[in-house]
Amino acid sequence: MAHAIDPHAGAHGHPAHDHHHGHDHHDQEEMKTFGFWLFLITDVILFGTLFATFVVLRLNTAGGPTGGELIELPGIIASTFILLTSSFTSGIALLEMNRGNKKGLIVWLIITALLGASFIYLEVTEFIHLVHEGATIGTSAYWSAFFTLVGTHGLHVSVGLVWMTALIIQLSRRGITPVTKRKVNIISLYWHFLDVVWIFVFTIVYLMGVM
Amino acid sequence: MWHKIKDFSSEFFVTGDPLILGAQVSIAITLVAIVFTLTYFKKWRWLWTEWLTTVDHKRIGIMYIIASILMLFRGGVDALLMRVQLAAPQLEFLHADHYNAIFTTHGVIMILFMAMPLMFGLFNIVVPLQIGARDVAFPFLNSLSFWMFFFGAMLFNVSFIIGGSPDAGWLAYPPLSELSGSPGVGQDFYIWGIQISGIGSLATGINFVVTILKMRAPGMKLMQMPMFSWSVLSSCVTIMFAFPILTVTLFLLFLDRYLGAHFFTLDGGGNPMMYINLIWMWGHPEVYIVILPAFGIFSEIVATFSKKKLFGYKSMVFALMSISFFSFFTWAHHFFTMGSGANVNAFFAITTMLIAIPTGVKVFNWLFTMYRGKLSFPTPMLWTIAFIPCFVVGGMTGVLLSVAPADFQFHNSYFLIAHFHQVLIGGVVFGYFAGLYYWWPKMFGFRLHEGLGKWAFWFWNIGFYVCFMPQYALGLMGMTRRFNEYDFDMGWQPLNVVSTVGAFLMGLAFIFQVWQIAHSIKFLKKETSGDAWDGRTLEWSIPSPAPMYNFARTPVVTSQDDWWEKKQRRLRGEAELPEVAAAEKAPLEPIHMPRNSGIPFIMSTCWFVAGFGFVWDWKWMIVLGLAGVIISMLARSFSYNTDYYIPVDEIERTEAAARGAH
Amino acid sequence: MANHNAHSGHGGHEGGHGSLKSYVIGFILSIVLTIIPLVAVMNDMFSKQVTTVLILVMAILQFAVQLLFFMHIRDEKKPRFNLIALIFGLVIMLTIVAGSIWIMTYNAVAS
Amino acid sequence: MRSKFRMLATGLFLAMVFLISGCSSEQYIVLDPKGPIGESQKDLILISTLLCAVIIVPVLILTAIIVWRYRDRPGRKAAYKPEWEHNTKLEVTWWSIPIVIIIILGAVTVYYTYKLEPSKAIASDKEPITIQVTSMDWKWLFKYPGEDIATVNYVKFPEDTPIRFQLTSDTAMNSFWIPQLGGQLYSMSGMAMTLYLQADEQGSYYGSGANFNGEDFAQMTFTADAVSQEEYDAWVEEVKADAPALTMDGYKELQKPGRSDVQLFSSFPEGLFEQIVTQYVEEGSSGAHSHHGGGAEASTDEEAASDEHASHGAEETEAANASHEGHAGH
Ligand code: HEA
Ligand code: HEA
Ligand SMILES: [Cu+2]
């Protein structure tokens, strides 16, 4: 990513260049991005385990309501498209950043965050609705798995929102530097990842639930 | 008022048992003594700036090792108590509930708070030095990992005097570990203690994968990396994929207990068997996580003390990687007797046996490294040689267990106990001891007393066989694990007595080790060459203990066993290779270093507070702790002044001092 | 030199790629891939089995779209540690899910 | 110093041998089976041990030889080749020997896994006797649906007759193990597992709960008596005549956590086992879910059960599995 600004980019790793400040940072930031990628893969496993639990317990409703009975698809469809769009807008933010447009970057990040916030709003509304219908985490194994899986995804999105806000503040203070650039790259990776997870939540929990 | 306090404290503190009272008193005395010493010698500031906030991988490594030795002591005392209880039929030494708590804490502490941190300690000390790096990839995260482990372990250990220990077995099968089976707070301490330290382990896993893949010295190809670093890579890859499963599993159990969810409960459609399925998906890879680095250590030591190149480097690498891959496909061998049908059992029996193949290849490669070598036997090598027969036999009994229909007879018996102690002690403990003895001079700059080390070695070995061989026999006599007492007429007593004697021999061995360390510190025998064993890899090319920045100039690597080759060239009087010579003659440059930070310590303390709050369900404390965690994270995100440069003249001074010590 | 090889990081930001065009294509594809299963499920177009397979396939395609067009997994330089790690992760993840389902079918509780 | 160690080691070793031989061979009950299942398992243990020993013993010997021969000492004759680090032939050899052994061992294991699948009936001309086993806190409850008697911490059955144990648990899981008859199987709440065992000889066998389930876990041992058919019939008569009945209240009493002595009952509430299996099913379970319970109930009678399941179609496989564990494995 620092290629654009680092004239020595071709020579990383060569001892003679170790002192070069920009270069040093370049490697460091790249390493952090790689580390974050690995973290995302551990998150894949984490969600995989939650999915496995959900699938295994999906029939154990203990006489209580089933998912198909209570899920209201329209809201879910809306949140799905919202999240898809926010994945797209976070990509646009990245493009703006690569063009060196700080303002565009911040604006698109704000749009992404707002979309994310409305996703969370819809999810909270849905949960409240479900609780009113008598489905809580303690209702049955099915609902335990449901709330945990969907809720863990929601928690991830919420963390992403806090983080994005912090990042927007940092960007407005410091502008586009190798460090903030890496941070934006990372958060957009995270955001795309959450979108992917949601697609599977949408398919396996909701679509299959109402089938 | 007074009454209230009394009621509260009788629930809060564990009371009524003289053993525990004694422990409480001695813990209190120790704490007071520590506080007093630190204050008296005005060491608080030193403690904070030099240790608690350090991000130096070598210091973090040392802290890991100290913590793990303390945990070995506690786990060992637990073991000795159990062995005393089992020495005679129907002994009234420990009550059932007390015994149950002891084997639970023994298992958890030994594996999660002894083996894991000892392993991480060695990772930290050795890996950056071995691959020619200045630190790990993420020094801040590394410090965070350590403190998460430390406070997780403390949270778990606190249950001993506050609230009561968990007593549902080291893997806490529900429904016994649910509120219905364990209404007390012990199980919550278990969940949060392991959860918090587990997150630290996960971070360490990622950290070292990145370190190894991205921070190798220029020229060091993956296929030239020292075998220990390879084993760390395989172990950390396994951590990355296994630990998230543990996180989820414990989290689900927590939801059951705390929010009344129904994942593993008896009622509400919960299925306890799902927990067993999930926990072993982590639990099985976990045992390979701890054994793989031991394999790496043995590989280093065997080559060093045979004065010979490691045999079959490529197949060693391949074996390591395939073990960590296959470890994810065998978990069901821990519950062959769950009645999942012949298809499941047959599949998992086969996958389990497959692991014997790469493991066997490693054994042969070690043997053929020694073959045509020139063997010498200082303590690290002794442990290595003792390891081979012990682990081979333990592995073989593992293969016997993997024969599914036969496991119906072995399962949960002392045969199993003997198997896993043989691989855990003969493999993991021997391996880490070997590593500890081997790298001790590098860590501290002085040598350990060899004579006392040999006494310890023999006592450990003899004690081990005396303790655990009879347990195979006991298993075949039908003695099941987790029995706190047995009847006279089973005829189990004689062998149990033998086993107890063996356990105490190991206890003696441990005392020898403590003595050895104390003795060596007192009669400090400085190790000044930096190359205590005529080693082969990069860590031996720098002074002991390594300076803070490790390498004054980034080394350039041209071959496997690079340091050895370089020494050979020198011996032969050859000129240095041009690229190496160029790098060595290059002028010193300021070194980029990470700054110390108090955030990891503070953030982990906050996790401890939150965990403690969850255990007792004190909402204010939970909120306080979690808020602290979030603030720490944001504080980190907003701090940009996280590194600095060591100026050239300071490097020159340090190097001169190190050389001067020659 | 190792660091030359090791230098690979995640793509997605190395100049040329990550164009607006690729984001737009990705976005459109992901919308389409969401609508197809929705329509299939809402209108009960196929048998249960067919629908299940269909929507799972769509989800996987959608995943591929995000990976290729948004996360730029293609642009990684060699050695492709990101891709290797991802594949390994997915294999383990599938093992967890499929293995659990397989084992637990024989241990379902009466409920 | 070294010689002292040797003396110590030899002494301890001798003491161990003495103590082990002091125990008679009958004490190794796993290796002294009295029924077809245990017999096969013993064969399997011996076969697998031999197969492993074929490679392990040479490895141990080789280790000793190499360590001895290549130790560094003045004037040794053994070769020293510090650069010798690769030999394709050798490496291929030790990849292939373990592979061959594992292939053989794997084949044997698979064969026995299907042969000894616990829910597979034992071939016999006698009708199997069903005994319903419930692990409780902390005692074993045995019910004989055919004879309508029940026992606690004691079980008796005729020799030479296949026994169909049906296992479940009242609370935490346990594992039902009579080493001399055959391997163990978990008893788990909410499901009924089938384990076939048979005693070929009369005798009194040790049985235990092998899976930890809480405080008084160690008290969950019991005796399994295999007797002649006549003796068994007489015993059933006697229990029916003399022992008290197990009522629902009596069962509630048993459910209270605690240890128990041997108890005998002349009858037990009808459908008690099914109730235990389905006790955690919530009231008002509807639709498919109540059939799960039905499945367990019917499983006391294999034929009826499969009929019932057949009639419920595909979605019922789940229930069928809950009560007919492992069948899908055939
Ligand atoms: C470091 C830890 C460690 C290691 C390395 C191993 C290694 C192995 N283990 Fe072990 N195991 C445990 C720790 C470990 N185990 C623990 C802690 C438990 C119990 C947990 C609990 O229930 O609380 C357990 C339980 C356990 C079980 C469950 C038994 C039961 O609960 O009933 C099984 C069953 O298959 C098993 C098998 C194996 C096998 C096949 C290996 C193999 O990897 C061994 C491979 C090595 C060799 C075979 C030796 C060298 C090879 C050769 C010289 C080549 C040729 C050999 C042959 C062809 C045979 N182990
Ligand atoms: C790395 C892991 C590890 C290690 C090193 C050990 C080490 C030992 N273990 Fe451990 N063990 C486990 C892991 C480990 N164990 C696990 C996972 C379980 C299963 C738990 C469960 O079922 O849930 C288990 C269970 C277990 C049991 C079975 C309990 C039961 O099922 O009822 C026994 C019984 O003999 C035992 C014995 C020992 C002994 C004698 C040692 C010895 O090596 C210890 C050596 C002793 C010392 C190092 C202590 C030194 C102390 C002193 C010198 C001080 C002396 C002071 C006083 C006497 C006050 N262990
Ligand atoms: Cu295992």
TrEMBL record, chain A:
Query: Which biological process terms from the Gene Ontology are attached to this UniProt entry?
Result: aerobic electron transport chain
**Cell location:** Cell membrane
Has UniProt tagged this entry with the keyword Transferase? Answer: no
Q: Which GO terms describe its molecular function?
A: cytochrome bo3 ubiquinol oxidase activity; cytochrome-c oxidase activity
Q: Which InterPro entries match?
A: Cyt_c/ubiquinol_Oxase_su3, Cyt_c_oxidase-like_su3, Cyt_c_oxidase_su3-like_sf, Cyt_c_oxidase_su3_a-hlx, Cyt_c_ubiqinol_oxidase_su3, Ubiquinol_oxase_su3_dom
Q: Which residues form the Heme-copper oxidase subunit III family profile domain?
A: 34-210
A GO cellular component annotation in the UniProt record: plasma membrane
Q: Which residues cross the membrane?
A: 34-56, 76-95, 104-122, 142-169, 189-209
Keyword field contains ATP-binding? no
This protein's membrane topology, according to the annotation, is: Multi-pass membrane protein
Alphabetical keyword list: Cell membrane, Electron transport, Membrane, Oxidoreductase, Transmembrane, Transmembrane helix, Transport
> Known Gene3D superfamilies for this protein?
Cytochrome c oxidase, subunit III, four-helix bundle (1.20.120.80)
The family database entries (SUPFAM superfamilies) matched by this protein are listed as:
Cytochrome c oxidase subunit III-like
What subunit structure does UniProt give?
Heterooctamer of two A chains, two B chains, two C chains and two D chains.
The similarity comment for this entry is: Belongs to the cytochrome c oxidase subunit 3 family.
Q: What is this protein's function?
A: Cytochrome bo(3) ubiquinol terminal oxidase is the component of the aerobic respiratory chain of E.coli that predominates when cells are grown at high aeration. Has proton pump activity across the membrane in addition to electron transfer, pumping 2 protons/electron.
- This protein is called Cytochrome bo(3) ubiquinol oxidase subunit 3
Source organism of the structure: Paenibacillus nanensis
Provide the taxonomic classification. Answer: Bacteria, Bacillati, Bacillota, Bacilli, Bacillales
From TrEMBL, chain B:
Q: How does it sit in the membrane?
A: Multi-pass membrane protein
Q: Which reaction does it catalyse?
A: 2 a quinol + O2 = 2 a quinone + 2 H2O
Instruction: Give the signal sequence positions.
Output: none
Q: Does the keyword Thylakoid apply?
A: no
Q: Where are its TM segments located?
A: 20-41, 62-81, 101-127, 139-162, 189-210, 230-255, 275-298, 310-332, 344-368, 380-404, 416-440, 452-474, 494-515, 598-616, 622-639
One of this protein's Pfam families, by short name?
A: COX1
Q: Which domain of life is it from?
A: Bacteria
User: Which Gene3D superfamilies does the annotation name?
Assistant: Cytochrome c oxidase-like, subunit I domain
Q: Which residues form the Cytochrome oxidase subunit I profile domain?
A: 42-558
Compartment(s) of residence: Cell membrane
Annotated coiled-coil positions are none
Per the UniProt entry, what is one GO biological process? respiratory electron transport chain
Q: According to its UniProt record, which cofactors does this protein need?
A: Cu cation; ferriheme a
Alphabetized, the UniProt keywords read: Cell membrane, Copper, Electron transport, Heme, Hydrogen ion transport, Ion transport, Iron, Membrane, Metal-binding, Respiratory chain, Transmembrane, Transmembrane helix, Transport
* MF (Gene Ontology): cytochrome bo3 ubiquinol oxidase activity; cytochrome-c oxidase activity; heme binding; metal ion binding
Which Gene Ontology cellular-component terms appear in the entry? plasma membrane
Major location category of this protein:
membrane
Q: Which pathway does UniProt place it in?
A: Energy metabolism; oxidative phosphorylation
Q: What family is this?
A: Belongs to the heme-copper respiratory oxidase family.
For this entry, the protein name equals Quinol oxidase polypeptide I
User: Which species is this UniProt entry from?
Assistant: Paenibacillus nanensis
From TrEMBL, chain C:
Could you confirm whether the keyword Transmembrane helix appears in this record?
yes
Subcellular location(s) of the protein:
Cell membrane
Q: Which residues cross the membrane?
A: 23-41, 53-71, 83-104
Would I find Transmembrane among this entry's keywords?
yes
Annotated GO CC locations: cytochrome o ubiquinol oxidase complex; plasma membrane
Q: Known Pfam families for this protein?
A: COX4_pro (PF03626)
Q: Which UniProt keywords apply?
A: Cell membrane, Electron transport, Membrane, Oxidoreductase, Transmembrane, Transmembrane helix, Transport
Name one molecular function that GO assigns to this entry: cytochrome bo3 ubiquinol oxidase activity
Give the GO terms filed under biological process for this record.
aerobic electron transport chain; electron transport coupled proton transport
Q: How does it sit in the membrane?
A: Multi-pass membrane protein
Which family would the database say this protein is a member of?
Belongs to the cytochrome c oxidase bacterial subunit 4 family.
The record ties this protein, via NCBIfam families, to: CyoD (TIGR02847)
Recorded protein name is: Cytochrome o ubiquinol oxidase subunit IV
Annotated organism of origin? Paenibacillus nanensis
From TrEMBL, chain D:
Q: Which InterPro entries match?
A: CcO_II (IPR045187), CcO_II-like_C (IPR002429), COX_ARM (IPR010514), Cupredoxin (IPR008972), CuRO_UO_II (IPR034227), Cyt_c_oxidase_su2_TM_dom (IPR011759), Cyt_c_oxidase_su2_TM_sf (IPR036257), Cyt_o_ubiquinol_oxidase_su2 (IPR006333)
> Which NCBIfam families does the protein's record reference?
CyoA, QOXA
Protein name per UniProt: Quinol oxidase subunit 2
What's this protein's function? Catalyzes quinol oxidation with the concomitant reduction of oxygen to water. Subunit II transfers the electrons from a quinol to the binuclear center of the catalytic subunit I.
GO CC annotation: plasma membrane
Ranges for the Cytochrome oxidase subunit II transmembrane region profile domain? Answer: 22-120
Compositional bias of kind Basic and acidic residues: 306-315
For this UniProt entry, the molecular function terms from Gene Ontology, in alphabetical order, are: copper ion binding; cytochrome bo3 ubiquinol oxidase activity; cytochrome-c oxidase activity; oxidoreductase activity, acting on diphenols and related substances as donors, oxygen as acceptor
What is the main EC category here? Answer: oxidoreductase
Encoding gene, per UniProt annotation:
cyoA
Q: Which parts of this chain are annotated as the region Disordered?
A: 283-330
Family affiliation: Belongs to the cytochrome c oxidase subunit 2 family.
Residue ranges of domain Cytochrome oxidase subunit II copper A binding in the record? 126-238
Topology with regard to the membrane? Multi-pass membrane protein
BP-aspect Gene Ontology terms: ATP synthesis coupled electron transport
Q: Please indicate which superkingdom the organism of origin belongs to.
A: Bacteria
| Keyword terms, alphabetized | Cell membrane, Electron transport, Lipoprotein, Membrane, Oxidoreductase, Palmitate, Respiratory chain, Signal, Transmembrane, Transmembrane helix, Transport
Listed under catalytic activity are: 2 a quinol + O2 = 2 a quinone + 2 H2O
